[in-house]
Amino acid sequence: MSSTAGSVVVLFGLAACGSGGLDPGAGDDPGSGTGSLGIEGWARATPRTANARTAPEFDVAFSVRVSLNNQTVTTGTVTITSATARVPLTYRSDNRWSGTADGYDEVYVLDVVSGPDKAQGIRVDGPDIHVFSQPAEGASVDSTQPLSIAWQRGAAAESATLRTENASALPVMDIGSCTLFAGGLKADRSEARAQQLRLSRTNRVTPAGTAAGSSWVVTLENDLDVVAQPLAP
After folding, report:
1. Are residues 105 and 181 in the same domain?
2. Buried/exposed code over 73-103 (b: 16+ C-beta within 10 A; e: otherwise)
3. Which pTM does this prediction carry?
4. How many CB atoms neighbour CB 229 within 10 A?
5. N or C: which end of the chain has fewer CB within 10 A?
6. Residue 180 domain-assigned?
């Protein structure tokens, strides 16, 4: 690991709005920059309870890798700003700047400054919150049959994946429904098996004015608890 000269500032910027509130704007914006920094970052919202419905029911983790001339930027200050909070990021031993926030704000803007090198105003309007409508929470289902899954959401996300104990990150279309193949849930022969379905929806932007391969991604995940019936003898 190498540190670059000069200070580093990574911030998800917000402007003041209303009575002291924060407003990052809306819609995607690739931002601008000097073309020298490599940015690979994500914000991931995960639910505190199954089938969460409101923004406060989510926790958000942030992770950003910043590089200059293929060397990791390790020194400086990192600040994340969303509609409700400014969160300082801390450089970790995994070569990334990390932090967390309570609640999902959906829109996040990324600014990076390292001495004369900059990448600023990179904004992703993340997916809205999706809520499962089928099967019912805690439903007992037959894992040997295809399972119809449905969710409610506003706008479609750019990409989506479905995960179970037996299926890892299956790509699905974010059209509000899909069918899990027979055997997609893990089942036991002797007893019912509780487990989760996890649907992840993602929006991303390719930052302007950065090194090739840069990205800024926002993912929202939600879970549904189901019970796989025991397999027939």
Report:
1. no
2. bbebebbbbbbbeebebebeeeebbebebeb
3. 0.88
4. 17
5. C
6. yes
